[in-house]
Write a structure and sequence with these properties.
By secondary structure, this protein is α/β, with parallel strands linked by helices. It is built from 14 helices and 28 strands. Bound molecules: flavin-adenine dinucleotide.
Length: 498
């Protein structure tokens, strides 16, 4: 089907693919511009990913952190300059200036903003995905929440202590910000939320293990804050295993290697098996497959994580009407034009890029020169659990960097996240839920649909796991697949930092 709604008299059309942080900001920035906007997203909602772990750990209901795109952009829709289409863009035909939705409908664009974000990377081991879901979408969060709560239920039913243990062992792979907040909150659930709700098991005996391939947690933070984060995780009841390279994941647990001193002092790889029925993947990020679709159509350059290498003004070489923003873009900041610096894969980066792409589209419509992107970085925050967080703030006006951790960092994290949530109702709901959870340690979004209808049999059936392989010691060579936290992997891929 082709797009027949174009007439010569219509305003220039800006198509925005993806209504996450980058796409939404671009749409808002064009709100009063003399253009017609079409926003296409494969979901019906804008998602506040920084609080997704709260849905995955039953702390918040989904509508508290996500809102219908149509409703968020209702004023622009009412003004008649914006259309929202729910559909998956499957390809981009730059020869005819069209995007293709769901493999069929063609939508014409005069200017295109691609803001399709990122997805998980299992470093070539996509077969791990069914045992170790990552956390990117609401669907992922629902799967993790169901598996975590089902594991406690299965443990309550299991009478054999040896078979019960894997149900009470929760593994999180990758100690970037997502892994750290997942591990801290899972430990809180075991230690506080569920402690008096079971008869046969003591939830406080559950183990939460955070595995990280690199030498420290929160690798993008200063070393002293990594150390403090590790201490706070331990204080919450989580175990931290650094230098642990995951080599396989099955329905029954995780195989990983560590490097340890051999008999003669030289390091040897020692293989281990951790029996666990619940594994969360927080280790790898790869750009949206639309990056590859763009490369096919425009011959643009992709980096090793599949991100599109953009020009200083965020457009593509030889395609001045085509912009890529957010996690899908390999962009540089030109705050110092002689020393451009990489832009991290975080929400402020995506929002600022979205606004800049809109600004540059307007410049082109006015026949003015576009401007290079300048990223303003105000710091880095990571929460670990109740009263536990780390923060680095850059204060450009006084040229100072402030680092803090613990309760003050947690309070700061909390207010920043509530402030940036979309919608007054969401802010109020989240504040009330958090205040309640703070004083009662309860998590109220614990209801989930029938797992028998949703889980693969092996994830649910209380089958006997195969005998654990013995711990083996092998030669000095580092192991083959070695995912680390969300920033890199020894499989040679780099990913947008988060
Ligand atoms: C669990 C988690 C926690 C995070 N925590 C933080 C944090 O604390 N602080 C921080 O700054 N950043 C955080 N981030 C990173 C931040 O969320 C991202 O940097 C930001 O979302 C990137 O914005 P984006 O617009 O590029 O992509 P997204 O916000 O991911 O939006 C992409 C949109 O494109 C849509 N889409 C994708 N493919 C298609 C297609 N083919 N067709 C149509 N639509 C499509 C998706 O449905 C989505 O709506 C976190 C990320 C995750 C996953």
């Amino acid at each position: 089907m082709t797009d027949s709604s174009r007439t010569p008299a219509t305003k220039p059309r800006v198509v925005i693919i993806g209504c996450g942080f980058g796409g939404l900001e671009a749409a808002k920035a064009l709100s009063h511009a003399p253009v017609e906007i079409v926003v296409i997203d494969r979901t019906n909602h804008h998602l506040f990913q920084p609080l997704l772990y709260q849905v995955a750990t039953a702390g918040l209901p989904a509508p508290a952190i996500a809102g219908p795109i149509r409703h968020i952009l209702r004023k622009q829709i009412a003004r008649g300059n914006l259309t929202v289409l729910m559909g998956e863009v499957t390809s981009i035909d730059t020869a005819s200036n069209c995007v293709v939705i769901d493999g069929g409908e063609h939508i014409h664009y005069d200017h295109l903003v691609v803001a399709a974000g990122a997805t998980h990377s299992y470093f070539g081991r996509d077969d791990w995905a069914k045992y170790a879901p990552g956390l990117k979408t609401l669907g992922d969060a629902f799967t993790i929440r169901r598996r975590v709560l089902t594991a406690f239920e299965q443990a309550e039913r299991e009478t054999d202590p040896a078979k019960r243990e894997p149900w009470l062992t929760f593994a999180v792979v990758g100690a970037g910000p997502t892994g750290v907040e997942m591990a801290g909150t899972l430990a809180e659930i075991a230690q506080q939320t569920l402690k008096s709700e079971f008869r046969r098991i003591d939830s406080r005996r559950a183990r939460v293990i955070l595995l990280e391939g690199a030498g420290r947690v929160l690798g993008t933070f200063p070393e002293d804050l990594s150390e403090r984060a590790k201490e706070q995780l331990k204080g919450l009841g989580a175990e931290v295993l650094t230098g642990a390279k995951v080599t396989n994941i099955t329905a029954f647990g995780i195989h990983y290697d560590t490097m340890e001193p051999g008999a003669d002092g030289t390091p040897v790889a020692v293989s281990h098996f951790l029996p666990s029925r619940t594994v969360v993947w927080a280790a790898g990020v790869a750009a949206s497959p639309l990056g590859r679709a763009l490369a096919k159509s425009t011959h643009c350059q992709l980096d090793r994580a599949g991100r599109v290498v953009v020009q200083p003004d965020l457009s593509l070489p030889d395609h001045p009407n085509l912009y890529v923003v957010g996690d899908l873009a390999h962009a540089k900041s030109y705050l110092d034009p002689h020393n451009p610096t990489p832009v991290p894969g975080v929400s402020p980066g995506a929002k600022q890029m979205g606004r800049k792409a809109a600004f540059n589209i307007l410049r082109r419509l006015e026949n003015k020169e576009t401007q290079a992107f300048r990223y303003f970085d105000y710091g880095n925050l990571a929460t670990i659990g109740k009263r536990a967080a780390v923060a680095v703030l850059d204060l450009p006006y006084i040229n100072k960097r402030v680092k803090f951790s613990g309760f003050s960092a947690w309070l700061f994290w909390l207010f920043v996240h509530v402030y940036f949530l979309i919608g007054f109702r969401n802010r109020t709901v989240v504040m009330l839920d958090w205040a309640w959870a703070y004083f009662t340690s309860q998590r109220h979004a614990r209801v989930f649909p029938d797992p028998h209808a949703l889980e693969p049999n092996a994830m649910l059936v209380r089958v006997t796991p195969p005998a654990a392989p013995p711990v083996s010691v092998s030669a000095v060579h580092p192991p083959a697949a070695t995912p680390t936290s969300n920033t890199s992997s020894s499989a040679g891929q780099t990913a947008p930092a988060r």
